[in-house]
Amino acid sequence: MRVYVPLTLPGLAEAHRTGELGPGPLTAYAVTPGLREWYVSDDIEELEYAALNRAAAASLRALATDPSVQRRRVVVAADVPDKDALADPDRGFDGGSVGEVRIAAAVPLAKAAAVHVDADDAHDDVSAAAAALGAADQGDDDAQFVVDGAEDHELLWYGVQEIPGLVG
User: Fold this and answer.
1) CA gap 23, 5 in Å, rounded
2) Is the dihedral of CA 32, 34, 57, 154 positive or negative?
């Protein structure tokens, strides 16, 4: 199963240093029955893109908790055995956890297929979105508009061999 693990640049640097995404348990995003129902599509590429975007939103949440971290969303796409990525059936259709899976143990970085990171030009919008996230969560429509602005930026694709240049 392809999973999308939300990180920050320091988290990616730590994964590069240790050779693993972890420690477990990890929260990741994948094409789950709940995501299929929520997104209403049978196209696997569209569903994987939706899971990637869910992970990017989780990365934004991680950025919002630490103002000292560079404002770039980071998602690592990795392949794990299906049995290792468990969706909570009680939360499968909860809007906040659609596509969410738990992975009990660390994932070897060797299982990573790609890294997705914001371009430098996304910095201002991602910064504003991280700052507005709390108000958006409280129902502020203007703040939600700012958060949605970060989603207008496509994450760039990087090969795993490019991680040293991303974190260096």
Assistant:
1) 12
2) positive
- Name the amino acid, one letter, at 48: E
Judge contact between 115 and 76, C-beta under 8 A: yes
CB atoms within 10 A of CB 29: 29
Distance from C-alpha of 89 to C-alpha of 99, rounded to nearest angstrom: 11
Q: For 97, list phi and psi in degrees, rounded to 5.
A: -125, 15
pLDDT-above-90 percentage for the chain: 82
* ∠ CA 113-119-123, rounded to 5°: 130
- Using the Cα atoms of residue 36, residue 64, residue 80 and residue 87 in order, give the sign of their dihedral: negative
Whether the predicted model's global pTM rises above the 0.90 cut = yes
DSSP label at residue 95: T
Question: 97-150: per-residue pLDDT in tens?
Answer: 789 999 999 999 999 999 999 999 999 999 999 999 999 999 999 999 999 999
**Using CA atoms, how far apart are residues 72 and 79, in angstroms rounded to an integer?**
23
